[in-house]
Amino acid sequence: MATKPGIPKGTRDFSPVEMAKRNYIFDTIRGVYALYGFQQIETPAMENLSTLMGKYGEEGDKLLFKILNSGNFLSGIAPEELGEANTNKLAARLCEKGLRYDLTVPFARYVVQHRDELTMPFKRYQIQPVWRADRPQKGRYREFYQCDADVVGSDSLLNEVELMQIVDTVFTQFGIRVCIKLNNRKILTGIAEMIGAADKIVDITVAIDKLDKIGLDNVNAELKAGGLSDEAVARLQPIISLSGTNKEKLAVMKDVLAESETGLKGIAECEFVLDTLSALGLRNAMELDLTLARGLNYYTGCIFEVKALDVEIGSITGGGRYDNLTGIFGMPGVSGVGISFGADRIFDVLNQLDLYPKETVTGTELLFVNFGAAEAAYCLPVMAQARQAGVRCEIYPDSAKMKKQMSYANAKAVPFVAIVGENEMNEGKVTLKNMATGEQSLLTPDEMINIIKK
Amino acid sequence: MATKPGIPKGTRDFSPVEMAKRNYIFDTIRGVYALYGFQQIETPAMENLSTLMGKYGEEGDKLLFKILNSGNFLSGIAPEELGEANTNKLAARLCEKGLRYDLTVPFARYVVQHRDELTMPFKRYQIQPVWRADRPQKGRYREFYQCDADVVGSDSLLNEVELMQIVDTVFTQFGIRVCIKLNNRKILTGIAEMIGAADKIVDITVAIDKLDKIGLDNVNAELKAGGLSDEAVARLQPIISLSGTNKEKLAVMKDVLAESETGLKGIAECEFVLDTLSALGLRNAMELDLTLARGLNYYTGCIFEVKALDVEIGSITGGGRYDNLTGIFGMPGVSGVGISFGADRIFDVLNQLDLYPKETVTGTELLFVNFGAAEAAYCLPVMAQARQAGVRCEIYPDSAKMKKQMSYANAKAVPFVAIVGENEMNEGKVTLKNMATGEQSLLTPDEMINIIKK
User: Fold this and answer.
1) Dihedral (C-alpha) A231, A232, A237, A238: value to the nearest 10 degrees?
2) Does residue A67 sit at the B interface (CB-CB below 8 Å)?
3) Of B197, B181, B178, nearest to B189 (Cα)?
4) Which residue in A51, A143, A132 sits closest to B13, CA to CA?
5) B chain contacts of residue A390, beta-carbon cutoff 8 Å
């Protein structure tokens, strides 16, 4: 036999059981998005490279999967271009299209392209795979699904509130206990202003973000090594060591940032979101966390991240407010806020905590054993009746040995098996075997259906 | 403003309304597949080119979208290779991966790769996009979904029977009246044998297939032009002009093919499928149609095709039996039979016949008008309660002019609007406006929910 065929590294096949679990995840998220008035769109897997390039930084450009032009892709390319050392430049000549790298840029493109058809605010969700030529490693794939929801065309903080309610509802439905962390880019900007190092905001937040991992002393050392004065680092101390309830934290921060208009605006935004949500009674905790520093290149207001409480894993959902989604495509002034559920990590968490509902796997409920042509002919109308009643059933297609047919039932984890021989045919009945208990009963088709459906 | 961004030709964005309709199609097909014991799998968008190349003929190889290798894709390629005229050969050096062209080859690869985990017969379905660098035209796209179901590892004709039941059930659920056409590759082989032109089977079937379009005389002329003797063409006449019921057609064919063992086998197969199905009482007609000649390169037994009766459009579903799915990957002896629903054409048929159920579009059911911060704060817990009861609702995020908010409700086709001002807040109620009738009533939240849910 030839070598077993494989699939590209970093990609996956999904088996029936995995698919059932993934569908459970997607259907749950989809259902909650719909409950909040979000509408689904889909965009093509391939976008023009001109849409994608330059949107994810230099590193991102390299991680785009580019699609070779069809036909004579060399036509019009001079020999000296082929010899060039800059393969990125050549790639752009050989390829016009690339696979989408996330759902945000295609969404921005969608909004601009369809602006005349859209009513703002536009609340869309999108659940589709994305592709990145990242080095594959545990939990990181080259093809993976994103589940994004965004509201664009509204500055209202009620959108932030709704997104947090969505997060809370989704994880409650999953049965995963989480902590929802909240920060605000404006607070971080205020902090940088306050210590007179507005250009160092990224360094500062990166250092603060390491607090859990490396401890306060090392954070301070890193801040100094990054060029902050002793005085600046000293002024940061109450922020780095911030603790207590959200109200207490906000009170401290109001003091610390009293002179930063931007900082105070960020605090007011967080306060509104936290107060409004606390009146609504979320089932999961929300925590103001100033060390949360994701997406600083594009988030401009609230930033969120969700951590699972009972499993050691990175963030399983995240998002934030951005001010200028579509500016890159020449349509300024469209503010938005969005979240993205990490389906792959949620899949792992549900597995580890064994939280999938039993009915997730919608496999065959009833297998008819096949004893031959006459018996099969008897079974077919009974099966049609069962399906009419919503019973997922099948007949073993060949009249193989009983043992083989029962192995098949076991391998597919079929809970009920129907056995029809001469006796059953004469009586107009079937023998139903409960595979869990081993119990067998001679029943009419109606009785059989009732037992399976209950 | 910069040029509006676009998408690659032959690809599409799907708007919320289109998505809702597509989900209705996919969910219906998915539900019926599950009812017959089929299980869903997914495979990666990218396959190794070695898996895809050579599986779709020379033309197919050209239509594969190939993905440029990441990093330095020129490394190891000699300058003279770059100058070569054969771009296909160079493409294979620049690209290791390609986008899947159909779901059949990835499925064959899946079966071979996972053979040790699978229990045969394996009944799988798969609903995913495929990509082809075809010239785009009306109804033909470069990215489109296929909805395939196959049973592999069983020769039993009960599988053919079940697939026809699935087709019948799906189109009954859609409300599309169809004719299911059946043929058998073995009958076609028998015909070719009978007239002593076994090598001309493709020419013959292509010519016969044109009967509807060009008429009998032209078919005969084409057959002669193709090298058939007058005698051979004369012997084909009863077949080309075959008519009557399925039983009558089969009777004629039994005579005509009396000396072809293969031909008689094909007739017996069709007879079994038709007889078994007629005992089950399909809701759509099945018709033996010898001019049906699809997939002759790979189908070896029954061949099916579905035509919509009330819309002029090509085949909307098709499939057949193949003998050696996985031989290309070194695993011989795996027979199978499958069908594929044409989602894009079904989408068009449902649109033309206006058959989408009203509840297909699961948009917002209830919009809360936003009169300001206090009113919004009052609305939020009412909305939480409504969502708890399954009502899809949202609040207009900004306290914009009433007219703007009502336009938004109209644009999203929201059936109910809740209006909350001082009066409602004082009474603990909401004013519910039915957007279709214009009727307004002052209600408690519970009353409001009951009206919307009924």
Assistant:
1) 110
2) yes
3) B197
4) A51
5) 35
Query: Measured between beta carbons, which residues in chain B are less than 8 angstroms from residue A13?
Result: 41-44, 110, 113-114
Cβ density class B52-77: b for 16+ within 10 Å, e for less? bbebbeeebbebbbbbbbbeebbeee
* Contact with chain B for residue A154, Cβ under 8 A: yes
The span from the CA of A129 to the CA of A142, in Å, is 10
Interface list for A 343-382 with B (CB within 8 A): 362-364, 367, 370, 376-377, 380-381
Supply the pLDDT for residue A3: 67
Q: What percentage of chain A exceeds 90 in pLDDT?
A: 78
Report the relative pairing of strands B39-40 and B122-131 from DSSP bridges. Answer: parallel
User: Residues near B93 by Cβ (< 8 Å), separated by ≥ 6?
Assistant: B77, B81
pLDDT digits (tens, 9 = 90+) for A102-159: 999 999 999 999 999 999 999 999 999 999 999 988 888 999 999 999 999 999 999 9
| Residue A178 backbone phi and psi in degrees, to 5 | -130, 165
A346: its two tokens? 């949620």
Helices (H) and strands (E) in chain A, counts: 18, 16
Q: Which residues of chain B have a pLDDT value below 70?
A: 1-3, 84-85
Give residue limits of the domains in chain B. Answer: 177-309, 362-453
The pLDDT of residue A1 is 44
Report the distance separating Cα B344 and Cα B358, nearest Å: 20
- The residue type found at A54 is G
Residues of B in contact with A420 (CB under 8 A): none
Neighbours of A194 (CB within 10 A): 20
Give me the long-range contacts of B224-232 (CB less than 8 A, separation at least 24).
Answer: B226/B200, B227/B197, B227/B200, B227/B203, B228/B195, B228/B197, B228/B200, B228/B204, B231/B195, B232/B195, B232/B196, B232/B197
CB contact under 8 A, B19 and A34: no
Q: Give mean pLDDT, residues A360-372.
A: 91
Interface check for B295 against chain A (CB to CB < 8 A): the answer is no
- pTM for the full predicted model: 0.93
Are the Cβ atoms of A48 and B123 closer than 8 angstroms?
no
- Phi first, then psi, for residue B270 (nearest 5°) are -60, -40
Q: Mark yes or no for CB contact A47/B7 under 8 Å.
A: yes
Chain A segment 210-249 residues within 8 A of B by beta carbon are none
Instruction: Please state the CATH superfamily assignment of the domain spanning residues B177-309 in this structure.
Output: Bira Bifunctional Protein; Domain 2 (3.30.930.10)
**What distance in Å separates the CA atoms of residue A167 and residue A173, rounded to the nearest whole number?**
10
Chain B residues whose CB is inside 8 A of the A44 CB are 7-8, 11-13, 143
Which residues of B are part of a known binding site for L-histidine? 102-104, 132, 146, 150, 294, 298-299
Cα A193 from Cα A380, distance rounded (Å): 76
Closest CA to B319 of B344, B343, B346, B301: B301
Q: What class has domain A362-453?
A: alpha beta
Give the closest-approach CA distance of A367 to chain B in angstroms. 9
pLDDT of residue A53: 93
Query: Measured in Å, how far apart are chain B's first and last C-alpha atoms?
Result: 48
- One-letter amino acid of A305: E
Of chain A, the percentage scoring pLDDT greater than 70 comes to 99
- Would you tell me which residues 47-66 of chain A have a C-beta closer than 8 angstroms to some C-beta of chain B? 47-48, 50-51, 62-63, 65-66
Report the alpha-carbon distance of residue B302 to residue B41 in Å, rounded: 25
CA dihedral B408, B409, B413, B416 (to 10 degrees): 170
Residue A252 in contact with residue A243, Cβ under 8 Å? no
List the single residue in A with minimal CA-CA distance to B380. A280
B169 to chain A: which residues are within 8 Å by CB? 387
Question: Is A146 annotated for ligand binding?
Answer: yes
Of A73, A79, A142, the CB nearest to B87: A73
